[in-house]
Amino acid sequence: MALDQLLGQPAARRSLELALESDRVHHAYRFEGPPGVGKTTAAMLLAQALVCENGRRRCGQCSACKRAVTLSPDAPEVPQHPDVLFVGRGLYPESVLGKAEATGISVEQIRRIVLGRLGFRPHEGRALVIVIFDADELTHAAESALLKTLEEPPADTHFILMTSRPGKLLDTIRSRTLAVRFAPLPETVLRQLLAREGLSPELAVLAQGSLTRARALGQPETQDSLADFVRGADAAVRAPHSDVALEFAAARPEGRDAVLLHLAHLASSCALEGRAAEPHEAPLWAEHFFEVSRAASEIERNGSAALVLEALILRLRKLPRTQRKTSFLP
After folding, report:
1. Less CB within 10 Å around the terminal CB: N or C of the chain?
2. At residue 86, what are phi and psi to the nearest 5 degrees?
3. How many CB atoms lie within 10 A of CB 171?
């Protein structure tokens, strides 16, 4: 089957395979789901199928299939197949776009990489596939430049927008794209994928269904940072004065994704401790898990990481405590 390498996403796989089998592939898909759950894999498998020399089979052996997933050894790292285009923040150098991208995927990238290409037929006559990574990072001007094309694209042109924050996209972008939803990977699938990469399958326990998160957890420096984050949160919650909330927020990891990774680890730790807790303590762990998850959601909605972490500590300090001193929170 065309998407046989897409594991742990049966609904998404079946939806896309039915479209290929019936020759009714939508002109613009929106792959929604957390990082590391198979969106990129699905996008590349679909791109292969659309440009395959053997007619939407993704044989994996023809020249088109191989070039669709073989990236250029030099920057920008894009597919060697001329009919598979990548769009992503920071992917193209300033020399290509005419200016640096500081705040998101710029309108210059859309104009030069996408719109400038749409005036031509696919080079090899099958399809033109445009994959947009982290589409929620499109600037407003870039989204506006895409709207008309998404509504009425040229024949044999297909867009795949990938996002973990679909709510950040314009309503008009969402209305012009067909959603395919990706859920967190089952732990059994995640263990299988980790074993393939020579990583410990035990990383799956705290990865919340994300291969990307599991890989990060396998790095010694990440493990040390996560442990420091948990200890810092524990100290801030137990401290006699609330000023420590500001100190904890100020010492946060750099970057939104890093903060989300640390919060996910904190939430997973709460969940694991809750499973092993005495019955009377389990509700406390559930409350703490909820608050940590709430903080992550606020950051995903573009909340200030510093303010969100400060508010998290203040909320946790108000929750009931037990006399347990050996682990995080309760």
Report:
1. N
2. -110, 140
3. 8
Residue by residue, DSSP assigns 228-294 as HHHHHHHHHHHSSSTTHHHHHHHTPPSSHHHHHHHHHHHHHHHHHHHHHS-TTTHHHHHHHHHHHHH
Q: By the 8 A CB rule, do 223 and 217 touch?
A: yes
Dihedral, 176, 108, 167, 147 alpha carbons, nearest 10: -20
Please list the pLDDT of the chain residue by residue as tens digits (330 residues). Answer: 678 899 999 999 999 999 999 999 999 999 999 999 999 999 999 999 999 998 767 888 999 999 999 999 988 999 999 999 999 998 998 888 888 787 899 999 999 999 999 888 888 878 999 999 999 999 999 999 999 899 888 889 999 999 998 999 999 999 999 999 999 999 999 999 999 999 999 889 888 899 998 998 888 888 899 889 988 998 888 888 888 888 888 888 888 888 988 998 888 888 888 888 888 888 888 999 999 999 998 988 888 999 999 999 999 888 876 444 445 555
DSSP string, 81-120: STTEEEE-TT-S-HHHHSS--SSSB-HHHIIIIIITTTTS
What is the sign, positive or negative, of the torsion defined by CA atoms of 8, 9, 14, 19?
negative
How would CATH label the architecture of 10-183?
3-Layer(aba) Sandwich (3.40)
Question: E strand or H helix at 67, and its extent?
Answer: helix 63-68
Q: Which amino acid is at 103?
A: T
Residues 6+ apart with CB under 8 A from 54: 62
Confirm if 109 and 36 have CB atoms less than 8 A apart: no
